[in-house]
Amino acid sequence: MANISGDAENEGALRNASDQVKRATRDLAANLTKSGSAAYDHGSDLVARSPGSALLTAGIIGFALGVILTKGSQTPRNSLQRYYDRYTR
Question: Looking at the structure, do residues 83 and 64 belong to the same domain, yes or no?
Fold first, then answer.
């Protein structure tokens, strides 16, 4: 025979754990939304105060990403170029 009261207890425990996970997820989402909104507001205030430095920072970050991403796609130098480089320095 199956233990009916044990099954009900297990079901209740699972339901309770599920409710706790849902509450924790909602709280986390609310906290992330608040943090993201605060960061956006702070960033927009900084850009409003000094748009030139924001543009300069964006340019530097873009240039650095471009250099990093294209580093592996450069063609290898041929043997004559290496020979020339070795004896002209």
Answer: yes
